[in-house]
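Risk register update: the risk that structure generation would not scale has been downgraded. Supporting records follow, first protein first.
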Amino acid sequence: MVRALVLAVLVTAAACASGAPKPTPTPRATASASASPAATADDASIYASIGPNDMAPQLKNITPRVYVPNSESNTVSVIDPSTYQVVDTFDVGKLPQHIAPSWDFKHLYVDNDLGNSLTELDPATGQKVRTIPVEDPYNLYFTPDGTKAIVVAERFRRLDFYDPNTWQKIGSYTVLHSGPNHLDFTRDGRYFLISCEFSGYVVKVDAQTMKGVEALYVGGSPQDVRISPDGKVFYVANQDLNGVSVVDINTMKQVKFIPTGAGTHGFVVSRDGQSLYVTNRKAGTISVIDFATREISATWIIGGSPDMGGVTADGRELWLSGRYNGDVYVIDTFTGRVKHRILVGKSPHGVCVFPQPGRYSLGHTGNYR
């Protein structure tokens, strides 16, 4: 089975490279139309509210911008997505890693990892507002009910829970495995699954008690995490194993492994909620996984070092950082071809495309529901 899947990926990649037609997912008018009117909350797609027509009213007058944290330059580049030009660059704290929209979309937060701070941005102006002291913010998430901010302090193997309104710490959990970095939540928001990059583990954490529940060894170097639309499994990018682990969080077992490409790293959900864009950072490719079949539907050869990012509100473009190339890639989601490469600072990482549709943000670079 694995051999056949790998062969299929190679055939698809060859077709992409030769310019032959590619099976690409087509962004639909709205994701919410995919759920039948009689569907219950448990039947509906978790991503039913991220379609192009689902933009929150308070965001409709926000000027679209793309924010790029340049980790080794200690700056943020701001790009106008209508002209594909860098329109601003400003200093932030040391080693900015990701830029996370707040749960209520009112703020953007630059995670200054070694700077031990969050730089708050105003999305209405695109400018800095204030600096919030927090320890080692490699990544930043918000619980689905909006009551907690979770700072992933990777160096210290710790998850720090804050009140997102006052930024007072309300709890802390020391993870038993090294390198905690990316996570996503169950449908009901009670639990989340976090990857541990340096130990090969994923850990199930209770968001209410702020304590770990169970761990699973998947091997390699687990990276980004995203839940399936039906809420049944989690996808975990594995950089060292060059593929994606599919994990059942209820049984804490790996139910499938999907080979993708060298350096599997980041995830972005398509605008219609039916596909998962997977960045293969060392291979310079994007694998498109069909959520319904848990199989690869296309492989896009783009070159460079694709890392983290997001899709535009209409779903027509996928924006990704080129981690080792100092640029940002703009990819046509209909054809899988690179439309633009935009030079930014050194080591661009967690690109934030804002605004985007959804009821609320779970943080990271824009994980919406």
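Supporting record for the second protein:
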Amino acid sequence: MEHRHLGRSGLMVSQLAYGNWITHASQVDDEAAVACVHAALDAGITTFDTADVYAATEAERVMGKALRAQRREGLEICTKVFWPTGPGRNDRGLSRKHIIESCHGSLKRIGVDYLDLYQAHRYDHNTPLEETLRAFDDLVRSGNVLYIGVSEWRAEEIAAAVKIADEMGFDRLVSNQPQYSMLWRVIDEQVVPTSVEFGLGQIVWSPLAQGVLTGKYRAGQPHPGGSRATSPEGANFISRWLRDDVLNAVANLAPIAADLHLSTAQLALAWVLQNPAVSAAIIGATRPAQVAENVKAVGIELDASVMAAIDETLAGVIVTNPDYTKSPEERP
């Protein structure tokens, strides 16, 4: 496993991070979850990503259980705050109250004294940005959190946060966690240049487009049993990629991958890691064997001809400019 700096910070993260959205406490039982985490550790993965909202806080508990016997200093544990975690009006968003209480809850569930990276899971239009950033800064100064990041923030939102942090002497953002894959390239135009300017690294989620870029979904064929397309939690997110034109284009990636002695999934992960703005790509798994296969993508260099062939193969199904007039709650 190879590591990269998280943006311009001193923190090193493994190029592949292990995440447990949808899987832990949902798709798989605790025993299978622990086995997958241990497979990630065996493969050299040191960066682990979760969120308080995953499986209604249970995913954090499972992650903590799986990592409990590990040397804490050798791990980078990341979680997130924003989405509702209770019935109250303050059990959501990025108010000081919710951030502080959620951080303490995450620490307890994961079973650690501090978080390496604490991320704003979405932008909160209902809370002053100054309030949000001061609460995060207080967590850093208290030692509960080492670094601060965001997830799915627009370029202008990132720029505004950096400006306020500089003016008020707060700890700066070091990362953004956006969706990014061969099929979903929305961050390339604005988010990546802004992040590079201000020193944020990208920890990208869904680099395999919810599993579609593994090639296991086929046009005109039933979805594989137990896949995200058949789960209540994952079906909504994967539905955009289950069109026949997308699935046929993805199927045409197989010969490109085969020429490089790679699987389609490994090709997709290598493509994401080819971007120097990407610090890490998050993978999930329901079986340890999936982790072992995915880590083979680390260190693969794709030359210009391969990158061009991928673009030509996927032309017409790549998303670069989605409808972002929706509220943060409605965005992917």
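The first strand starts at residue 3 and ends at 5. On this basis the risk owner (M.S.) recommends closing the item.
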